[in-house]
Amino acid sequence: MVEIIGKIVLCLVIALLLGFLIGWLFSKALGKEEEHIDVESFNDSDSQLNIELVELEHKYEKEKELVAEFSAKNRELKGELMKKISLLESTSNTLKNLQTNTLSNQNRSNDFSIEKISKLEKLLEKKNRELIEFETVLVKAEETIEELKRK
Predict the structure, then answer these.
(1) Sequential DSSP letters for 114-147
(2) Burial letters for 75-93: b for 16+ Cβ neighbours within 10 Å, e otherwise?
(3) Of 91, 110, 90, 92, whose CA–CA distance to 102 is shortest?
(4) For the chain, how big is the Rg over CA atoms in Å?
(5) Per-residue pLDDT tens for 99-140?
(6) Threshold 0.90, pTM exceeds
């Protein structure tokens, strides 16, 4: 029985080795066919790929030039913007200074006007008192004249 089991195991090992060898050879044969097909399709599409590659390189160069052009234009515009910003800031500062000066001049003018008005009011009161005194003197003078005329 051991002899039969040994022969069966030996047959199985030989079948395994034969199967492995046949499979390996079969895979090699199929692999070469696939490589052959890929090379042929690559050769057919090689001219198309070269044309597309040249077109892409041309597009890339154009876009690279555009990027450089826009970058230069961007720098130029930023410079102009900075000049305008500095001009705007200086103009804004000048306007603020003018506004401050104008307000302070108006305040001084208002203070002067208020002071002048109060002086004029005091002078008016003084003149009104003098006028009242003058009227009383005139009334007394008239009364005196009338008394003198009656006598």
Answers:
(1) HHHHHHHHHHHHHHHHHHHHHHHHHHHHHHHHHH
(2) eeeeeeeeeeeeeeeeeee
(3) 110
(4) 59
(5) 998 888 888 877 788 888 888 898 889 988 988 888 888 888
(6) no
